[in-house]
């Protein structure tokens, strides 16, 4: 019987082959060919936003596919660009908008030519294939999709609030450390502090520790939601974080333990008061087995 851990490792250890297989899928191949052939014809924000196929491809590549109908928002984001710290792209809580605006900076110095350069097209088509690969894996095992998402996105996060604002990253963190689901948080700062003790940002930017964390997630996912767990529900993958900051930040990080299995009751009491006794012996043992080194 296959496991989330085994499937995740199969993908990451043969990533080039999986990427090639995804790129060769008829729908992906057709969408990519259209983008490559037509993005160079676009000369303005209006042209870009008005071309559904080009816009949907670009939004997919940046993980913003659910925003395809938000053309007014997209237009404002692109018109503001990224050079002004107060622009819409720079002030939205979701960092994907800034990346999207930087890639399609029609109003910037490079203009339309920078959007359709060979390097820009390669970056977008590569990102599109990666998004499709993750979605394909999610159709078989949500845990694999979340693991791939975590490994790709976590290194780009600059502070703990970025984790709280991303429902997918937060689900991964909750699963790794056995945290309770959202209830009624009163202190977001305390949640961020607890996360900083559990999963320092520096660990997310260290490839070795990031891999260890990801494998801890898949192991805990198997334990919590796998065939032998008796679970009747599973995690879900959110493809739209644009409105999630408030709800994700309201999650109660209860029953927090650090990466060495030690209780951090001070952080717990700051915002939940939930005792660490919610952990079973099996869960504690499993977490300790997958503790980070160093």
Describe the structure.
The chain starts with a helix and ends in a 5-residue tail after the last helix. The model is unreliable at 241-294 (pLDDT under 50). It is built from 19 helices and no strands. The chain is an all-alpha fold and 294 residues long. The protein is globular, with a radius of gyration of 20 Å. The longest helix is centred in the middle third of the chain and has 23 residues, at 118-140. The protein is 62% helix and 0% strand.
List keywords for this structure.
294 residues
What's the overall geometry? globular
Q: What characterizes the major β-sheet?
A: none
Strand portion = under 5%
Task: Count the DSSP helices.
Answer: 19
Low-confidence stretches: 241-294
**Helix coverage percent:** 55-70%
Order of SSEs, N→C? HHHHHHHHHHHHHHHHHHH
Structural class: mainly alpha
């Amino acid at each position: 019987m296959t496991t989330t851990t085994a499937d995740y490792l199969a993908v990451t250890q043969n990533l080039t082959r999986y990427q090639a297989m995804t790129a060769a899928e008829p729908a992906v191949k057709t969408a990519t060919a259209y983008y490559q052939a037509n993005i160079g014809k676009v000369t303005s924000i209006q042209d870009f936003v008005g071309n559904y196929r080009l816009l949907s491809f670009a939004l997919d590549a940046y993980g913003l596919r659910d925003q395809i109908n938000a053309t007014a928002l997209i237009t404002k984001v692109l018109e503001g660009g990224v050079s002004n710290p107060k622009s819409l792209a720079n002030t939205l809580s979701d960092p994907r908008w800034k990346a999207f605006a930087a890639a399609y900076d029609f109003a910037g110095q490079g203009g339309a030519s920078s959007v359709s350069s060979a390097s820009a097209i390669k970056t977008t088509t590569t990102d599109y294939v990666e998004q499709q690969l993750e979605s394909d894996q999610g159709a078989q095992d949500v845990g694999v999709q979340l693991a791939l998402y975590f490994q790709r996105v976590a290194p780009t996060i600059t502070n703990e609030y970025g984790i709280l604002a991303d429902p997918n990253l937060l689900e991964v963190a909750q699963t790794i450390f056995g945290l309770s689901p959202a209830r009624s948080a009163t202190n977001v700062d305390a949640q961020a502090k607890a996360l900083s003790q559990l999963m320092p940002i520096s660990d997310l930017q260290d490839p070795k520790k990031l891999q260890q964390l990801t494998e801890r997630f898949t192991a805990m996912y198997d334990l919590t939601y796998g065939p032998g767990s008796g679970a009747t529900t599973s995690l879900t993958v959110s493809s739209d974080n644009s409105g999630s900051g408030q709800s994700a930040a309201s999650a109660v990080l209860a029953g927090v333990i650090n990466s060495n299995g030690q209780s951090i009751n001070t952080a717990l009491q700051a915002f939940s008061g939930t005792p660490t006794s919610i952990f079973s012996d099996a869960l504690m043992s499993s977490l300790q087995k997958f503790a980070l080194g160093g």
